[in-house]
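TA notes, week 10

Several of you asked for a full example with nothing omitted. So below is the full record: structure tokens for the whole chain, then the designed sequence directly under it. When grading your own attempts, check the secondary structure regions first.
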């Protein structure tokens, strides 16, 4: 139902004539809208206008009931693009970790020196205070050797600890795989980042599963060698991740200051049509 307002019957406002010429607000003159027997609600329903604008319920709601959601000002440019900050933290921690995992310049220890800055959960596992690996020491004799202090180092050689920690990396693979699928709508650099992350976390998860076999099967040498190779492979893949990450970081920084040099990132947004584009295209063909 349209909402209308009308002021076409000007004579009625002077109280002359009958019918529509009556003043609708003059009860004594028998106005047809507000008379002695009428109700104000009925009068409002009958009060119509010509020469006025009709508003549909949808337009009325949009104009008067819906709050304004337009963004005022230019805060996005004022505060800047937050992506480079996140990339910087990601790269400054992941790049040295990848070098540690590959054993460059004698680095090792599965990146223990860099892990704390990489993933909080990963780093906390190596902190003795959390007793993440010490809780796996169930032999009273071995536990007593640590004099009751948390984080018994013997826990890292327990198969259950290594197998349990591997599952953390397995679900990192799942998360990165979801990001990988979504990156097909962004650019090639992001696709490379998440593709290599999936491979790297897969290698690291397999490495810890092999370490569990190594400690379970009386120091199985084959499992130990496989685990070491998988760690190096994971580090190499993470290094490729970092190279792609530094590339897109520089590209974003250069674009933010309108630098004349533009680094290509390989736009993929046109390769796979989005849901909105497909829907609009189908509607256009139907029309």
């Amino acid at each position: 139902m349209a909402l209308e307002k009308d002021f076409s019957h000007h004579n009625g406002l002077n109280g002359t004539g009958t019918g529509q010429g009556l003043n609708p607000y003059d009860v004594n003159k028998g106005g047809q809208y507000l008379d002695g027997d009428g109700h104000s609600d009925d009068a409002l329903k009958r009060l119509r206008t010509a020469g006025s604008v009709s508003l549909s319920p949808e337009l009325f709601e949009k104009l008067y009931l819906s709050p304004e959601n337009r963004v005022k000002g230019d805060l996005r440019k004022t505060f800047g693009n937050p992506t480079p900050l996140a990339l910087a933290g990601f790269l400054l921690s992941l790049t040295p970790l990848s070098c540690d995992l590959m054993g460059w310049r004698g680095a090792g220890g599965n990146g223990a020196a860099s892990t704390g800055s990489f993933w909080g959960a990963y780093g906390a596992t190596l902190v003795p205070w959390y007793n993440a690996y010490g809780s796996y020491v169930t032999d009273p004799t071995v536990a007593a050797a640590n004099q009751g202090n948390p984080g018994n180092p013997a826990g890292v050689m327990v198969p259950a600890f290594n197998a349990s920690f591997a599952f953390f990396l397995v679900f990192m693979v799942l998360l990165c795989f979801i990001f990988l699928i979504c990156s097909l709508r962004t650019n090639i650099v992001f696709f490379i980042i998440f593709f290599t992350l999936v491979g790297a976390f897969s290698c690291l998860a397999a490495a810890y599963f092999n370490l569990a076999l190594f400690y379970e099967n009386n120091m199985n040498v084959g499992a130990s060698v496989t685990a070491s190779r998988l760690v190096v492979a994971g580090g190499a893949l993470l290094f490729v991740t970092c190279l792609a990450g530094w590339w897109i970081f520089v590209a974003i920084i250069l674009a933010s200051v309108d630098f004349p040099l533009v680094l290509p990132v390989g736009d993929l947004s046109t390769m796979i049509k989005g849901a909105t584009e497909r829907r609009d295209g189908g509607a256009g063909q139907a029309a």
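Residues 1-36 have pLDDT under 50 and may be disordered. Use that as a sanity check on your answer.
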